Amino acid sequence: MATIKRALISVSDKTGIIALAQQLHSLGVEVLSTGGTAKLFRDNAIPVIEVSDYTGFPEMLDGRVKTLHPKVHGGILGRRDLPEHVSAMQAQEIPNIDMVVVNLYPFEATVAKPDCTLEDAIENIDIGGPAMVRSAAKNWKDVAVLTDASQYADVVREMQSTGGALAEATTFSLSVAAFNRVAQYDAAISNYLSAVDYKASIVSKQPVLNAFPAQSNSNFIKVQDLRYGENPHQSAAFYRDLCPAPGSLVTAQQLQGKELSYNNIADADAAWEAVKSFDSTACVIVKHANPCGVALGKDALEAYSKAFQTDPTSAFGGIIAFNTPLDRAAAEAVSKQFVEVLIAPDYTEEALAIFSTKANVRVLKISLPQDGISDWEKGRNSHDTKRIGSGLLIQTADNHEMSVADLKVVTKKQPTAEQLQDMLFAWRVAKYVKSNAIVFCGNRMTLGVGAGQMSRVDSTKIAAIKAQNAGLTLKNSVVASDAFFPFRDGIDVLAEAGAACVIHPGGSMRDEEVIAAADEHGLVMVVTGVRHFRH
To answer: Which residues belong to the active site?
Structure first.
């Protein structure tokens, strides 16, 4: 065990630091500190020795040099179990430092400010702090290193119960957390500086950042190990962003049910991302990463009933997501089916009571994100990534939003206001269907979904077959295609199925032929100018 007799405290974030120093003093621990933190301790009658007095060397260069001294790092790094270390420290009159409490300059918060200058960013790169943290973390058997206020209470409790000592398991855990924090800090600095266009920044007199830095460093924290991956022979774990967006799946609270599997999490994310994109009351049912039923309704029950009608067969064992609190009526309807995961922003007590009798159903509660300006505030990823062999593809996320004003009617026949709303609904659903995607809709509900086919014509045929199997008519329906129709054959098939309107990106070299086919069939055709491939 490491007995704590001397602690060096130097923090930027002062949260909880006065209470910690008082408790350490009550345990007989001598406290060393630097400028601002030392003043805070003196103002609160906590005995403290300034590092400059301790080393005999003044803080200088606007505080850039204050703890970078052999008496500091020797006291931290010296191994108590090696006689040669002990004798060398005694010869140089270097006492042991048994605890280091350091949090770093707020680099991440500084560069997040819209008015941050390059000089501001550079001055908030901590040097002495990470050096001390690394030194203490390396010598974890003899030194405890605290890098976050959330650690203070547990450490003090253990010291109080052991007469001022900490177990090796504790100091090792603190060491790992410290190295993780330094890695996160350095990654943030690397990402920011790698994105700076220096020449452009000089001209504009403020940082100009490239969308994709020269080096990409990601930080994810493990949430849990999973039983296995997509298949039982694959191992897997679930990680979250260091700072997850509000209203994202990783913020979910599991209220009941079995542990989530790899596939559960992937499908639940697909369902939640789709359902929260609607402003009106919506239900999305997902199976194997594709929406098999989506609908809007006056309440949760109507939305679910309409979504379920699209494809009752595929809905069996699916993921069901709502963007509105789930009440008893909707819960009773959902509970009649086999469901793997249920997601909603909240549940009434009656709804939870209904599902409490179905112990295996995984019930998740996720708060919807509030209105915001940035993608993060809206609960959306700003970038998507895809792993390839020894590499990574990174792109901005497909967060494009479409309105009626963005649509262009290219056929002789004009859409009604009702058809325009159905087309926007179908277009939004198509965004979440694997390409090639064809989505038949009507009355703000999906009627048939064709997903993931190599041929757009095949996707169209499958969507029509799905509707037929569910007993739904496609007469006067609207169709959304995630990409343009390269030939008229796709138009012929959807017209034969009964569609009255089609919305797609346009942009094919055969657009005129495709538009002519729509006119020939008496269809309304609207183009968006935007594609929604989802691979």
So the answer is: 138, 288
Q: Which residue has the higher pLDDT, 92 or 468?
A: 468
Beta-carbon contacts of residue 39 (< 8 Å; ≥ 6 apart) = none
Q: Are the C-beta atoms of 436 and 453 separated by less than 8 Å? A: yes
Amino acid in the structure at residue 286: V
Nearest to 317 by CA among 341, 345, 293: 341
Q: What is the reported pLDDT for 478?
A: 97
Q: What pTM did the predictor assign?
A: 0.88
Residue 383, helix vs strand vs coil: strand
Please spell the DSSP secondary structure of 154-172, one letter per residue.
HHHHHHHHHTSEE-HHHHH
3 state SS of 49: strand
* Mean pLDDT rounded to a whole number for the chain: 92
Position 62 scores a pLDDT of 64
The CATH 3.40.140.20 portion of the chain extends over: 241-365, 404-527
Contact 178, 136 (CB under 8 A): yes
Is-contact 495 531, C-beta < 8 A?
Answer: no
Residues of the chain with CATH 3.40.50.1380: 2-195
Number of residues that this document lists for the chain: 535
Contact 331, 350 (CB under 8 A): yes
Digit-coded pLDDT (tens) for 454-488: 999 999 999 999 999 999 999 999 999 999 999 99
Of 51-55, 281-285, 526-530, the range with the lowest mean pLDDT is: 51-55
Q: Are 159 and 27 in contact (CB under 8 A)?
A: yes
Please, which pLDDT band fits residue 499 given cuts at 50, 70 and 90? very high
End-to-end CA, the chain: 53
pLDDT of the residue at 79: 87
Contact between residue 515 and residue 525 where contact means Cβ atoms under 8 Å apart: yes
Q: In the CATH hierarchy, which fold is given to the domain comprising 404-527? A: Cytidine Deaminase; domain 2 (3.40.140)
State the average pLDDT over residues 207-221.
89
Q: What is the pLDDT of residues 50-88, one digit of tens each?
A: 888 787 777 766 666 667 788 888 889 988 888 888 888
- What is the CATH T-level fold of the domain 241-365, as seen in this structure? Cytidine Deaminase; domain 2 (3.40.140)
| CB 98, CB 6: distance < 8 Å | yes
Whole-number percent of the chain with pLDDT over 70? 98
DSSP letters, 384-417, are: EEEEETTEEEEEE-------GGG-EE-SSSPPPH
CATH class of the domain at 2-195? alpha beta
What DSSP character marks residue 119? Answer: H
- Look up residue 274 and give its two tokens: 């789709």
Within 10 angstroms of residue 298's Cβ, the number of other Cβ atoms is 9
Q: CA nearest 218: which of 398, 392, 396?
A: 392
Enumerate residues 6+ apart whose C-beta is below 8 A from 535: 434, 435
* pLDDT confidence tier of residue 202, bands split at 50, 70 and 90: confident
Angle CA 110–111–115, to nearest 5 = 85
Q: Give Cβ neighbours of residue 67 (< 8 Å, ≥ 6 apart).
A: 8, 10, 34, 51, 128, 129, 131, 132
